[in-house]
Amino acid sequence: MRSSGSAGDIGTTVIARVWHGRIRAKDSAEYVRYIEDTGIRDYRSCQGNRGALMFVRPNGDEAEVFTISLWDSYDDIKAFAGADISKARYYPKDEQYL
Predict the structure, then answer these.
(1) What 8-state DSSP symbol labels residue 98?
(2) Cβ(47)–Cβ(73) under 8 Å?
(3) What confidence tens digit (pLDDT) does each residue in 51-97 have?
(4) Most CB contacts within 10 A, which of 50, 51, 59, 73?
(5) 28-56 pLDDT, tens digit each
(6) SS3 19
(7) How would you classify the pairing of strands 49-59 and 62-71?
(8) How big, in percent rounded to 5, are the helix, strand and coil portions of the chain?
(9) 3-class SS of residue 56
């Protein structure tokens, strides 16, 4: 997804990379802390990253999780995610939650 700037940054193109997953609702707070300390921190430390957001939507016993990272270029995304930017980058404890 591409977005053309904002009121404060007219004319700049930003690429949004979206990830979606499901976790147990009871693990939501713990999972948010875990992702803030791993994925979100990693996104924000990369060259070309404009920021990252995480949203959690409870749905009964499950919760849906969305992360959105904003990038200057596809090359910047590749430096973070690898050559196939359509594949998610997972962390050691992800399997415990997802």
Answers:
(1) -
(2) no
(3) 999 999 999 999 999 999 999 999 999 999 999 999 988 888 988 99
(4) 50
(5) 999 999 999 999 999 999 999 999 999 99
(6) strand
(7) antiparallel
(8) 35, 35, 30
(9) strand
